[in-house]
Every structure is written in structure tokens, then in C-alpha cells.
């Protein structure tokens, strides 16, 4: 491991939640690029794996300026070590910040490194490349969440423009999940981010449920948090609750 100061430096950024609850940093890399690291609930660190992102989700600030580059293994590790050096104990690490972890060569090695330090690693992915997803499902992570955000192919293209189509994505999940132990199956989940006018219709939710239910895994239904780079808007609380009840009853 190189000296941290040669790899990156952390600069405080506005809080990611109520005052005193979460801590956010901008990580300035040696080439002048910047990514983000956020410490949630005192000991859960969310790190970034790329400068920008190629997936192009229109509601996400991460890819607003396209993809710069992937981070090296040392830069992934440095985010953890730099936060620890500030006196914050870390017990869980999630690769869920800026970037698509399955596009980064060092992600698998980083997960192994976390486990070697008794850190619980997890990641969030748009699911592609599908071959990488198949491999990652069987890695010794503490959780893998696949961001789907659609039930139909037309909406998937709009929501996750350069992610895999739903058909090969769910085919891979259907083939790989039965190979897992019951305890490992509980580590796999789907995510559906509700956005007004994009994917919030009953038809879209029903189509998603039809694909998701046979897998027998958890689904996280999220409310959209607006970002300055996107014109998309969140659904109302009442609409979110109706959608939650609809999926729960499916």
C-alpha cells in the first residue's frame, strides 16, 4: 500500500443526513479527479469505484458527465484506510457510491481485501456485464443488490440506458441463485427506485413483480431523492405507499 497522501486526500463535504448522523467526504485523487465516500450510522462506509459512470441513469448524479476512469485497488483501499485514519471505526463497506462496480477490474480483489480485514463488503450494481454478475453472485460478499428500476424492457432502457436488458439479467439470476445456499440467497436483493412518470405505473410494478417473485429474494422499494443534475421528480408519499402495498400483496 502506497502512502495515503500520494493516493488521495479527504475533504469534508456537506452532511449526508441529519447533523451528527452521517459524514461525507470528497476524495481528491492524485490525478485531480474527485469521488465521494460517506460514513453511515457510524461504522458503515459507502465508497466510490469510478470517476463518473458509463451506465447513464438519468436520475443519478454519478454519471452526469460520463465516465472518467475506474479506480485502482489501492484507491479503493485508500478510501477505507483514510476514513479509519480519521478515527472512525469501519465494520461494513459497500461499493455503492459513484460508479458501476462490475465495470471495475479491482472490485473482486477489493472484496477479498475487505474480508481479510474482517470488514463486511457489499455492492450495488446495475447488473452488467451479465457474465461478471454471474461471477460476483458467488463471491464471498456480504450483500449484492441489483438495481432494476423497471418491469418492462422499454422502461429499463430509459431508466438504465447502458445496463443489461431485463431478459438476460433475470435469466442469469434465475440460473445462479438456485446454486447458492439458503444463507447466501439472503445476501442477494433487487432494488426498484420509484420515479414519477418513469416507472411508477401499476403496469410497470406488476411487470416487475412477475419477474422478481420467482427468484425468491428480497426487493427494496426506494423513494427517489432529487438531485441537481436531473429533472426527474419523486412520487408522492401516498403513491409510494400504494406501490409498496401492491408489491407486498403480489
Going by CATH, what is the homologous superfamily of the largest domain? Aldolase class I
- Please give the radius of gyration in angstroms: 18 Å
* CATH architectural type of the largest domain: Alpha-Beta Barrel
- How many helical elements? 9
Structural class: alpha/beta
Q: What proportion strand?
A: 15-25%
The major β-sheet equals:
9 strands, mixed
Shape: globular
Tell me the domain tally.
2
Q: What number is the mean pLDDT?
A: 94
Q: Low-confidence parts lasting 5 or more residues at pLDDT below 50? A: none
Q: Would you list the SSEs in sequence order as H and E?
A: HEEEEEEHEHEHEHHHEHEH
Distance between the termini: 50 Å
Assign a percent range to the helix content: 25-40%
Number of strands: 11
What's the level 1 CATH class of the largest domain? Alpha Beta
Query: What is the CATH topology assignment of the largest domain?
Result: TIM Barrel
Amino acid at each position: 500500500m502506497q502512502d495515503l497522501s500520494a493516493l488521495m486526500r479527504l475533504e469534508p463535504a456537506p452532511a449526508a443526513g441529519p447533523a451528527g448522523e452521517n459524514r461525507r467526504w470528497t476524495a481528491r485523487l492524485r490525478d485531480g479527479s474527485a469521488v465521494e465516500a460517506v460514513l453511515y450510522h457510524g461504522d458503515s462506509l459507502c465508497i466510490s469505484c469510478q470517476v463518473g459512470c458509463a451506465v447513464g441513469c438519468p436520475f443519478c448524479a454519478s454519471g452526469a458527465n460520463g465516465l472518467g476512469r475506474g479506480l485502482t485497488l489501492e484507491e479503493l483501499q485508500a478510501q477505507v484506510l483514510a476514513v479509519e485514519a480519521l478515527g472512525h471505526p469501519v465494520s461494513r463497506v459497500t461499493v455503492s457510491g459513484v460508479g458501476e462496480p462490475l465495470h471495475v477490474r479491482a472490485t473482486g480483489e477489493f472484496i477479498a481485501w475487505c474480508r481479510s480485514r474482517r470488514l463486511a463488503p457489499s455492492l450495488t450494481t446495475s447488473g452488467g456485464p451479465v457474465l461478471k454478475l454471474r461471477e460476483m453472485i458467488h463471491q464471498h460478499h456480504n450483500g449484492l443488490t441489483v438495481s432494476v428500476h423497471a418491469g418492462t424492457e422499454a422502461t429499463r432502457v430509459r431508466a438504465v440506458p447502458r445496463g443489461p436488458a431485463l431478459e438476460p439479467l433475470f435469466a442469469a439470476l434465475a440460473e445462479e441463485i438456485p446454486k447458492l445456499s439458503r444463507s447466501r440467497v439472503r445476501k442477494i436483493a433487487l432494488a426498484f427506485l420509484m420515479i414519477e412518470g418513469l416507472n411508477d405505473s401499476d403496469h410497470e410494478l406488476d411487470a416487475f413483480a412477475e419477474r422478481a417473485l420467482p427468484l425468491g429474494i428480497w426487493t427494496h422499494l426506494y423513494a427517489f431523492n432529487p438531485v441537481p443534475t436531473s429533472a426527474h421528480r419523486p412520487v408522492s408519499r401516498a403513491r409510494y405507499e400504494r406501490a409498496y402495498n401492491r408489491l407486498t400483496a403480489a
